[in-house]
Amino acid sequence: MVNVFLTGATGFVGSHLTPILLQGKHKLTAIARSDASAKKLQDQGITVIRASLEDTDALFKAASEADAVIHLGFVHDMANFSKAIEVDYTTVETFAKALEGTSKTLITTSGLLASSSPTPSELTPAMHAGRGKAEHLVLSLATSGIRSHVVRMAPTTHGDGDESIMTLYIQQSTKAGFAGYVGEGDIHWPAVHVKDAVNVFKLALESRTLKGGEVLHAVHDAGVPFKSIAEAVAGRLGIPTKSLTLEEAAVHYAFLSKMFFTRDMVASSELTKEWLSWQPKQKGLVEDIKTSEWYFSPEAVSKY
Predict the structure, then answer these.
(1) Residue 192's closest CA among 217, 168, 167, 219?
(2) Helices (H), the chain
(3) Where would a tag sit more exposed on the chain, N or C end, judged by fewer CB atoms within 10 A?
(4) What is the pLDDT of residues 250-294, one digit of tens each?
(5) Do the Cβ atoms of 59 and 94 come closer than 8 Å?
(6) φ, ψ (nearest 5 deg) of residue 103
(7) To which H or E segment does residue 29 belong?
(8) 296 DSSP 8-state letter
(9) Burial code of 256-282, b = ≥16 C-beta within 10 A, e = fewer?
(10) How far apart are CA 294 and CA 229, in angstroms?
């Protein structure tokens, strides 16, 4: 049994991770900002600390008392993204101070979009901007007596409860009356089902072979052609697909057009599979869209 402190435990990824950690007989402590989040955690038998990511004293104390820290929390404020990046970096700094020299585990979350390559592997360094800045800090902590790992999430992490990119794309396509893509729709978008993704965190926590300083990729679909995504959404909504210019995409899809429609990426997770014996078992993105009840239900509302 490991005493694990988590941030973001009631978020999309966190709410799928906590049950499997509890099944593994781990003892969990997590922060909560609201009464609703606190109750959700307490109902699972998770110890609650009322705090936010900006309460560094509370984070330091909780991390110091834990055997391991899993940092999933992030301030999803696209209107003030630089502030969100600053909070994330400060949070990692706080955990670094709390865990230095202890040989305890720190697992943090980044994204493939922080990678410096359009074809990233686990050995590809992150950019030194955005979430990549915190990623570099986490990896450096392996030389400070911390068993540190970064899990890079696929840009589309899908499944029941998703309130992020795919949900927003479906909402905006519904409003537009078509499922849009730019040009030929031939850019690629890595994806993973949330139930597969959370197993990367669990396996990393329990691994006896990882030494520290590793990047792990939570990626199942290495790169789904965007047109295939649009066709699957269009089929479910009963609307046509439509090729757009970047200018037209910006009108109908707002900030999604700046990354979702233009960032071509094919990502590998071969080292993660080798290091952790991780094998994705859930549906791929296109199949999930074709069969999902969640994405086309009234409950599926994007947080963006």
Answers:
(1) 219
(2) 12-23, 35-42, 56-65, 81-99, 131-140, 165-176, 194-206, 226-237, 246-253, 256-259, 270-276, 285-291
(3) N
(4) 999 988 888 788 899 999 999 999 999 999 999 999 999 999 999
(5) yes
(6) 65, 20
(7) strand 27-32
(8) G
(9) bbeebbeeebbbbbeebbebbebebeb
(10) 16
